[in-house]
Amino acid sequence: MEDCIFCKIIAGEIPSTKIYEDDDVLAFLDITQTTKGHTLVVPKKHYRNILSMTGEQSAELFSKVPFIANKIVNNLHAKGMNILQNNEEIAGQTVFHTHIHLIPRFDENDGFVGKFTAHDYDLAEIAKEINGQ
Length: 133
Fold this sequence. Notes:
CATH superfamily: HIT-like
CATH class: Alpha Beta
Structural class: alpha+beta
CATH architecture: 2-Layer Sandwich
Number of strands: 5
Shape: globular
Helix content: 25-40%
Order of helices and strands: HEEEHHEEH
CATH topology: HIT family, subunit A
Strand content: 15-25%
């Protein structure tokens, strides 16, 4: 895609710090470095996000995540890893080329906060809606 920054990185038009590459996937350090080693894993083919990919296309991308995540955790001596994938602007997607954030975690004060808020929803009703009932 012509104006996509990740497509330009993949094409070598914009420099990046690569940590993994094969025929289908590129992993490079995020310039924001939320935590040390914050990495983006992207498919080399342009897709807007996971919602525009098939199961087979997303399987190829996600199949590389454990290897790359373990490489980061083991070599940076992280205590854990957040794996984040945003779809559409409302969910925090700012670059509209599918990408997975690998965010190594070192301690509670390392710069990343992921927090869930509980809601009192009727789970059975939600399941019916999702299943079109």
